[in-house]
């Protein structure tokens, strides 16, 4: 599948930078929602990560007439029956900050020994009415305190399996290789290479 240019359906600078780093070796020109000021924010009201990712990519592709790439990510914590999941970005309320969400999570896990968790990302690519989705999972655990200054969201409290550091302590190259979003996008990259 030959794509020369695509739009990342996001205003999040961290997410845009992460995706640009992973996609740049393919020679694809990567734009984002920021390059199209008339685009409206898409309300993520679907009950699944896949549904939200597709909804955003469908809207942006239709409006820009370009292939659109979107993702939705959830942190799934075993002791909380998979929560916050699809509500990860607004766990502590609709306008919650990253810090509000992290503090709520740490509070809910206070005193619990089972801290197993996984990040799950679904990436959706929509192009000329065709839809593809790719999933990436990174297993790990929730730490008892925040560590590190890099990354965003729950990165300061998520320690990936096989590592002694949180996502927020890892350099971006290492994180992109092992992260849920990195894995989902690698699956997308393999698809683009194989379909070419």
Automatic annotation (TrEMBL):
Record has Hydrolase as a keyword? yes
Q: Which UniProt keywords apply?
A: Hydrolase, Magnesium, Metal-binding, Nucleotide metabolism, Nucleotide-binding
EC number from the UniProt entry:
3.6.1.66
Q: Which residues bind Mg(2+)?
A: 72
According to the record, cofactor stoichiometry and binding are noted as: Binds 1 Mg(2+) ion per subunit.
Sorted alphabetically, which InterPro entries does this protein's record hold? dITP/XTP_pyrophosphatase, ITPase-like_fam, RdgB/HAM1
Q: Which cofactor does it need?
A: Mg(2+)
Q: Does the keyword Metal-binding apply?
A: yes
Q: Which reaction does it catalyse?
A: dITP + H2O = dIMP + diphosphate + H(+); ITP + H2O = IMP + diphosphate + H(+); XTP + H2O = XMP + diphosphate + H(+)
Q: Which domain of life is it from?
A: Bacteria
Give the residues annotated as active site. Answer: 72 (proton acceptor)
Any one GO MF annotation of this record: ITP diphosphatase activity
Give the family, as the similarity comment puts it: Belongs to the HAM1 NTPase family.
* Subunit organization: Homodimer.
Name the chain's protein: dITP/XTP pyrophosphatase
The species is Gracilimonas halophila
The lineage, from the top, is: Bacteria, Pseudomonadati, Balneolota, Balneolia, Balneolales
List the gene name.
rdgB
């Amino acid at each position: 599948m030959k794509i020369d240019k695509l739009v990342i359906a996001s205003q999040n600078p961290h997410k845009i930078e992460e995706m640009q780093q992973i996609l740049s070796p393919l020679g694809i020109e990567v734009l984002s929602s920021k390059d199209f000021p008339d685009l409206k924010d898409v309300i993520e009201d679907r009950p699944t990560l896949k549904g939200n990712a597709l909804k955003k990519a469908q809207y942006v592709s239709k409006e820009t007439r370009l292939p659109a790439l979107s993702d939705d990510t959830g942190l799934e914590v075993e002791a909380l029956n998979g929560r916050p999941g699809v509500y990860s970005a607004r766990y502590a309320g609709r306008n919650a900050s990253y810090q509000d969400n992290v503090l709520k999570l740490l509070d809910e896990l206070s005193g619990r020994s089972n801290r197993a968790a996984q990040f799950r990302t679904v990436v959706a690519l929509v192009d000329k009415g065709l839809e593809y989705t790719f999933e990436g999972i990174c297993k790990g655990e929730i730490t008892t305190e925040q560590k590190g200054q890099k990354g965003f969201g729950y990165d300061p409290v998520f320690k990936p399996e096989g590592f002694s550091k949180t996502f927020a302590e890892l350099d971006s190259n290492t994180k992109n290789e092992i992260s849920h979003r990195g894995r989902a996008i690698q699956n997308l990259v393999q698809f683009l290479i194989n379909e070419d």
